[in-house]
Specification:
With 117 residues, the chain is mainly β. It has strands spanning 3-7, 10-12, 18-25, 32-39, 46-51, 57-59, 67-72, 77-82, 91-99, 105-107, 111-115.
């Protein structure tokens, strides 16, 4: 199993930046594909970005060119740098760990990101 704790959310003006961090504990970090997802009010949870242990990344079209996901396998952490934020980026952001063998998913509790002037 793995436990995930997110940090770094908050209120930011449109065009601003935030960096979210996720600390993992409890299992071998490298066997998980890590990712960030988000859920806006009244909407389903959606993919933001994922990153494999080898560093391969995948992004939602809506964040390409603005968000950058990274991971540190030694520190068991995954971050997402969010630039040029838009009001439509407002959501609760969740850290995800996807076990590549069992396909089981683990989730953090989420951190609120609000983009507003």
């Amino acid at each position: 199993q793995v436990q995930l704790v997110e940090s770094g959310g908050g209120l930011v003006q449109p065009g601003g930046s935030l960096r979210l961090s996720c600390a993992a504990s409890g299992s071998i970090f490298s066997i998980y594909r890590m990712g960030w997802y988000r859920q806006a009010p009244g909407k389903q949870r959606e993919l933001v970005a994922t990153i494999t242990s080898g560093g391969s990344t995948n992004y939602a079209d809506s964040v390409k060119g603005r968000f950058t996901i990274s991971r540190d396998n030694a520190k068991k952490s995954v971050d997402v740098q969010m630039n040029s934020l838009k009001p439509e980026d407002t959501a609760v952001y969740y850290c995800n760990a996807h076990h590549v063998l069992s396909t089981k998913d683990y989730w953090g509790r989420g951190t609120q990101v609000t983009v507003s002037s």
